[in-house]
Each structure stands twice: as structure tokens, then as C-alpha cells.
Amino acid sequence: MSTATVTRPGPGGPSGPAAPGSPSGRPRSAWERVRTYTPSSRYLPVITTAALFVGMFSVGGARYEGFADPQVFLSLLLDNSFLIVLAVGMTFVILTGGIDLSVGSNVALSTVIAAKTLEMGWSPYLTVVAVLVTGTVLGTAMGLLIHYFDIQPFIATLAGMFLARGLCYLISVDSIPISDETFQTWAFASVDLPGGYYVGWTSIVALATVAIAALVLARTRFGRTVYAIGGNESSALLMGLRVASTKVGVYAISGFCAAFAGLLFALYTLSGYSLNAVGMELDAIAAVVIGGTLLTGGRGFVIGSLLGVLVLGVIQTFISFDGTLSSWWTRISIGLLVLVFVVVQRFMTRRQP
Amino acid sequence: MSDTLPKVPDTASAPPSAGDGPARPSPLARALAHPLLWPVLALVVLLAVNVAAQPGFLEVRLQDGHLFGSVIDILRNSAPIMLVATGMTLVIATRGIDLSVGAIAAIAGAIACTQIVGAADQGAASVAIIASTTAVAACVLLGLWNGFLVAVLGIQPIIATLVLMVAGRGLAMLVTDGQITTVNNDTFSDLASGFVLTLPIALIIALVVFGLTAVLTRRTALGMLIEAVGINPEASRLAGVRSRTIIWTVYVFAGFCAGVAGLIIAANTSSVNANSLGLWIELDAILAVVIGGTSLAGGRFSLAGTLVGAVFIATLARTIPTIGIPSEANYLFKAVVVVLVCLLQSPKARAAIGSLLTARHSKGATS
């Protein structure tokens, strides 16, 4: 049986078996491949979001003078750098099918800790470490509660949200300005681009976070386990994957990202205030949803979340350029966008077996 | 190991059928496991703390035909949470959740206040009644919308209601035009501060809604059907339960409750700030439901527990300034309460504590 297949002389000869994609056996030309290329359906949501962003940006450019300026795009990155980092952390959590409501409070706590420790005269580097450790510990604690005691992510992170907000008030009820020199240099550091444009360091850091996260999700065992848990946790467990450490890990990552976003936010506002970032978790979740990540977990990309944040940013830019629209249209349009994406997702997943 | 346990004289009183567990629960253990024990105990502890800090805490006196006292005050303040939590209990019982109630409350307040301000005779009672009815009707529509997303389109409840949570405050701002609208209408402010039969009207409204809900769910089959849907919507549909209608109904009811709560909150200050009215009331309501012993996994619910939970949260908000802690810190206490309640409810945590206790017990028995 097996010898028969081996000894059978192949009609294709040295060219090997015919390519399964081309029944005629004729190799397809490069142009043909480009022409008939259809992106895999898993990239479809991300492509939609990218198209949405480009479309909105072009409409804005056509309608308002100065909108299409590259600097508008660069300040979009600058103004939303903390939200980008936050959405990256949230993507990890949502990919496992969880949710993290604590990130907004965690951002506020980070700004307050940063401002308070700097006021006490700590070294800025020590402050950064303290903030990042606090956020990560908070995230890890929630992850432990969720995994080892089967507490729903929603409720465990709700506790984390209350805890972080309460700690903020305990440290300081008033806004604390940051006057540390190192922090001020970081806040205003930027890279000049040709053409008189500049990009802030915080946005570069945010983009680097996206790149690292994308790499981790696509190329590491941890990343694959994240997707596997989101697809089906019991299957992942039966496959012998490290479900426990990964599940706790995503909340630790989310906590770390929230603390990091808090640092960027502190640099952005140069102050720490316990009422900062109220409801920012909603923006982060909305960005992830608009970025095409499935809220039931298992599917989505970090790059989509980046695009989601940019779409949210464009809406805000739109409203500020227009001048006649009131600020509350931001919230309404974000809600509508989330609705459209959720409904479309629902129908797309329903069609699959 | 567990097979040998029943032979130890200490546990001989336990029924011999205990083969798989350490022992059958004794009456004491069963009392300890009663779902209402912990919430009530927590409330009693809180009240005791209050009495210790302020000896006259429990005093209630009758003045001008009204009851006055800290307890009455707490009950009055708990009315909005009680209302929202009643609606939330039913939603959670169907394995859902409604995050949009805070936004719905804000919309209710916004609509009512804008209508009253826009009326020809601002102080008239009829104006207040019409405005309140319109507001509640709008909230029922919003509840219908949530129900449509969940029951018909089959979107996860947490996401479906997130849409309105995000957009709702924007809608409320749209109604009030971003202004803090202040109204001057005695009938409307009576919703929060008026008294009928010596009791605050707000409390009476909340208790009536609560009572009707309790009767409707526990004296008819409705409660059981809701629980059936919460356990398995598909199976209950196949068994002839109208899952879709029931899910839709609970979201409409949650919208209604949130609307009434929004009216009471707006009436309390006779004004509406679309940004802050009912902010985080959804989380407080969920907390009240969870404290009351209703599982977030759906399938069973305890309305009495929710009532205790709502009063507990209102009492906690009152206790913290009383014992000299800045009132902002009550978030910390809420966090601790959430974690404790969840750990008590979590089967895994119970098992861990249980095995810890039995390990100590068996060690004591062998030595």
C-alpha cells in the first residue's frame, strides 16, 4: 500500500504535486494572486476598522480645513497614548473572555501615587517602579481571585475598581501637581520629523507597547494560550496548556498596562487626581470592541484595538473641529459605533458552525 | 480517609449516610449556610457599630406626623438603590446583567426636569405627574431596547447594556442641553422628601414596587420561570417556557425601576446633572444583589436578600462618616465587602476553608 504511493511516478515530475489552489496546474501569476486575494475572515474586522478610520479621516479632511494635516494625526496619537496602552491590556483580558473594569481606577491610582511620591521627594525612577509594581500587584490579585476562586471577572474587577478608587482618596482627595524636573522633561520630550512635524515620546512608547503586545500574542506560547483560553477554556485545560498562569497573567498584564497608562496620563496632565479617568474603562472596552475583538474571547488583534482608539480619537477631533456639535455627541457616537460592531459581530459569529 | 471518619466517636451523631463528604450538615451548619444569614449578620454588625459610635442612632421620634431619625433617613436614602436592585435581581436571575441603569436613571431625571421647566405653570401638580409619567415611559422604551438586543439579537447582556451605558449619559445631556436643570415644583420634590402615613414617600414607592415584585414572582409561577430561563434558556424554551418574552420583560422591568429611581434622585435635589445623576448606581445595585446572596451565574434569586443588601449599602454610606473616616473611603469598604461576599459564595473558596477546618479537626481527633 505504502510502496505503491511511493513508487507511483508523479505526472508533475520534478515540479512536485500540483498546487491545490490552481486546478489547472499552471502556476498563478503574481498579478492573479493579488487580484483574487481575499483576506482571511479573521482579519476582516480589523480591516473594517482601518477602513472606517481612513474614511473618517478623509471625510474630516474634506470638510474641515487643516484636518488632513499629518500633525492632526500625530496629536491624535499623543492625546490618546494612555488610552492605547490601556486598550492593549484590555485586549489581553477580553481575548481570554474576561473583562477588566478596574483599569480606569487603576489609572487614577497610578497618577495619584506618582504625584504623591514625587511630592515626597522620591527619585522619579523609583516612582515609576512603585507605580508599575502597584498596578501589576492589583491586577495579579484580581487574576488570582478570578482563577482560583471562580469569581466572575466582572465582579472581581469591580472590587478592584472600588479598591483602587478608595486608595486614591485615602492618599489624597485634592489634585497634586507634578513639578519634578525629570517628569517634566519626559512629558515634553518629542522627536522632530522631517517637514516640521513632531511626535511626542509618549506616543512612541505607546506604539512600542502595541508592537510588543502584538509580538507576544502572535509569536509566544503565552499568546497562543491566551487565544486558546478564549476559544474554549476547558479544551485548553485538557490540552495541557498552562491555563492558570495565563489567566492570572492576562490580568497582571492589564494591571501593568493600566499603571503604565496612568504614568502616561500623569505626564499628559502633569498632575495626580483621584477623580482622573472616571469611566475610562468604558472607553478602553469600546476601543477594543470597535477594533474587532470578539467580546466572548478567542479572536482579535492588538492592532485592532489601536485602530479602535484612533477611531474614538477621530470622533473627538471631528467634534472639536466642527465647533457646533456639543461634546456629548462623542459619547452618543461611541455608543452607536459599539452597537454597530457588536451587532455585526453577532451575525458574523452566528453564521459559523 | 473520609471513610474512616464516621467511626470516630466525635462524629457518631452524624447520620451514617455521609460517605462522600466529611459529614452531613448539622442543624447549626445548616443555619450557617442559610443564604440570608450572612447579609443580615453583616447589617446587624454595621448597625451595632453605629450604635456604639452614636448611642442615639436607633432613636426614632414622631414629629408633625412624620417619623424622624437616622434609621428612617437611611431607609429613605436606600430607596433608589432598592428600586434599581429589585429590577437588577430579576435580570441577574436570568443570567443577565444590566449596566445601563445608571444612564437610564439620568435620562429619566433629565426628561422629567426638562419637561417641568418647559411647562407653562412650573409649580402645578399635574405638570409633575405628566413629566414623571413621560420619563418613566421613556425608560420603559429604553428597557425594551435592551431587551431587544439581548432576547432577540442574542447579544451578551453585559455588552448589550454597555451600549446604553456609554451612550445614555450623552442622551441625557442631549435632553438637558448640557445644563444643570433646576426645577421648582413641590409635587416633584415630594417624591423624595414628602411623607405619607408618617413614612417617606420614596421609601413607600420602593417598598410597593418591591412588594408587587415579590408577590408576582413568588406567588405565581413567574419566579420559577425566570429561574428556569436563568439555568438554561434553551432547555426552558424547549420545555414550553417563553424564554424570549421573559428575558425581554425583565429588562423592561429593570428600565422601569431605574426610571423611578432616577426620578427620586432628581427630586431629592430638585435638579438634574446628567453627568452625575445615578453615577455608579448600577454597581451599587449589583453589589446589593450579590450581598443578598443572588448568584451572578443566574438561576436563582433572593428578593429579600436584595432588600437587605440595599439597606446594607445605604447604611455603610452612613456609617463611614459617623465613625470618623472620610466618606470617600467607603469605596475601600465596598471593595472589601465585595471580595468577602464573593469568597463566601464561591464553592471553591468554601471547599478550601472547609478542608482547612476538617484537616485541623481530624488532626485534633487523632492526636
How would you characterize this protein structure?
The complex is a heterodimer of chains A (353) and B (367). Chain A has 353 residues and is mainly α. Chain A is 69% helix and 3% strand. Chain A has one domain. Chain A has helices at residues 2-7, 30-35, 44-63, 70-79, 81-95, 103-119, 124-148, 153-171, 181-188, 201-219, 221-231, 233-238, 243-269, 280-290, 302-322, 328-351, and strands at residues 176-177, 190-193, 197-200, 271-272. In chain A, the strands form two sheets. A two-stranded antiparallel ribbon of chain A has the order 1-4. Chain A has a two-stranded antiparallel ribbon with strand order 2-3. In chain A, a hairpin with a 3-residue loop joins strand 2 and strand 3 (197-200). The longest helix of chain A has 27 residues, at 243-269. Chain A is globular, with a radius of gyration of 24 Å. Chain A starts with a helix and ends with a helix. Chain B has 16 helices and six strands. Chain B has helices at 27-32, 37-53, 70-77, 79-93, 101-118, 125-152, 157-176, 186-193, 201-218, 222-231, 233-238, 243-269, 281-291, 303-322, 330-345, 347-366; strands at 61-63, 66-68, 181-182, 195-196, 199-200, 271-272. In chain B, the strands form three sheets. Chain B has a two-stranded antiparallel sheet with strand order 1-2. In chain B, a hairpin with a 2-residue loop joins strand 4 and strand 5 (199-200). In chain B, helix 4 packs across helix 13 (281-291). The longest helix of chain B has 28 residues, at 125-152. Chain B is globular, with a radius of gyration of 23 Å. In chain B, 47% of the residues are buried. Chains A and B meet through helix 8, helix 14 and helix 16 of A and helix 7, helix 13, helix 15 and helix 16 of B.
